[in-house]
Amino acid sequence: MLKLYLIFLSSALVCAQITKADSVCSVIDQPGNYEYGADNIVSPSDPDDAIVCITSSNVVVDLGEHVFAQTPGNTVGGLNGVVISADLKNVTLRNGNIGNVTGAGIIVNEGCENIVIENIQIRECPAGGILLAGTSLNAIKDGSIIDCLVLSCTGNNGGPAYGMRLVECDNFVLKNCVFENNDAGTIASGFGLSLENCDSCKIVDCSAQNNGGNILGVGISLFQCRWAIVRNCNSMNTIARSASGTSKAVGFLINDCDHNTLTDCIVKHSNSSLSQSYGFELLDGSDNMCVLCNSRNNSGATVAAGFAINGTESQTALMECTSRINNGGVAGTGYGIYINGPQNCDIWQNKLIGNTGLIGVGLKDTTTDTTNLIAGNLSFQNTTTAFDVNRTSGSLPVLFATVGDFSTIASASDYENIAFT
To answer: What is the rounded CA–CA span in Å between residue 378 and residue 288?
Structure first.
């Protein structure tokens, strides 16, 4: 029987084929429609196997709402739920429950096109719930992942935990998916959803909850992605546990990315009790936008910020967002918006309310004589300072109103920042 043997190499999945007579894999190697009629609980005798192997293009595989799992008590390593071979086209996988395996739930290998995954529940797959493993020379193109639930993927052999991970994928739509309790504990970093080196993807109506790890805990992460649209998504209760100065919990991490747009997204309760937390962090990219997003109740021991724009990020816009009740604790600083290094960004018409800690600041830009446009923002009831921006030539237009004097807002221009104490 044909077996797909999978190994990790340089953080990417590589697929090689070997013939192994005792594989438990159910192989789909001809075009057509397939529907399973019963649960498929298997007991592999050798490592690095799979329950279902798809090796043909032009197939629809319906798991029939059945369970695909490893027999309780069988601990043979590397059993994956469903593996889709490299360079296939027009493959649909739907309607099933995959879980309690020692490998990954679903793996899609490089070069595939028109892949659809829908209505799949995945639980307790340490190597990752759903993994799409394209390469720089052979991306996975055009597909969708819809109505999927990924729970309790904890990381494999000390590696990071991933609920869903897409690497080198172009033109994918992720819609109405939930990533929950994907947590590597104190061993490694953890991600609810991670996109890496992806182009022109859409993430819509998705939710990341209770994901975390040690150094880094992230609800939804984009790394070196371009032209993504993220709309109406949320990240809640993300946790990072390490006391390291680089440790952080982040609801949405947009790292080294260009031309991406987040709209109507919400973060609540990113928590790093020993280090730093951010609701949204935009880091070392350019021309990204957050519009009409809401970040609140994030807490950190050193820094907590609803929105952080860090490093060499440039030409990025934060517009009409709300940042509320971010708490730096008894020794740290809580920020509504924290800007540390970026230039030529637009910070426009945001609301910064009730941010607290040993120091609580509505908006801080650490660069003297910043080139960022900071205009039309409202700061209210932050513990220490409304706006901490230092310009030696010219002044930041800030209108300080009397407490409760909301009528002053009507007389302010669109460019004036308003502070209520």
So the answer is: 22
Per-residue pLDDT band for 411 (boundaries 50, 70, 90) equals: low
What pLDDT is stored for residue 417 in this prediction? Answer: 82
pLDDT at 334 over 90: yes
Q: Encode pLDDT of 142-194 as tens digits.
A: 999 999 999 999 998 889 999 999 999 999 999 999 999 999 999 999 999 99
Supply the pTM of this predicted model: 0.92
Residue 212 has a pLDDT of 97
**Beta strand 80-84 pairing with 113-123:** unpaired
Which tokens in the block code for residue 28?
A: 């789909």
List, in sequence order, every residue forming a beta bridge with 52; answer none if it has no partner: 26, 82
DSSP letter for 324, please: E
Assess whether pLDDT exceeds 50 at residue 7: no
Q: How far apart are the first and last CA of the chain?
A: 73
What Å distances lie between residue 226 and 50, 145, 155, 367, CA to CA?
33, 19, 27, 27
Cβ-based neighbours of 30, under 8 Å, separated by 6 or more: 56, 59
Write out the DSSP string of 23-40. Answer: ---EEE-SSEEEE--S-E
Could you give the domains of the chain? Answer: 60-420 (2.160.20)
| Phi-psi map region of 335: left, alpha, beta (phi>0 left; psi -120 to 50 alpha) | beta
Residue type, 249: A
Nearest to 233 by CA among 285, 164, 300, 132: 164
For residues 261 and 336, what is the distance between their CA atoms, to the nearest angstrom?
Answer: 20
Looking from the CA of 215 toward its CB, the CA atoms found within 13 Å total: 9
Query: Angle at Cα 300 formed by Cα 298 and Cα 304, nearest 5°?
Result: 60
Each residue's pLDDT tens digit, 124-151? 999 999 999 999 999 999 999 999 999 9
C-alpha torsion sign, points 290, 136, 151, 27 = positive
Reading the block at residue 189, the tokens are 């970093």
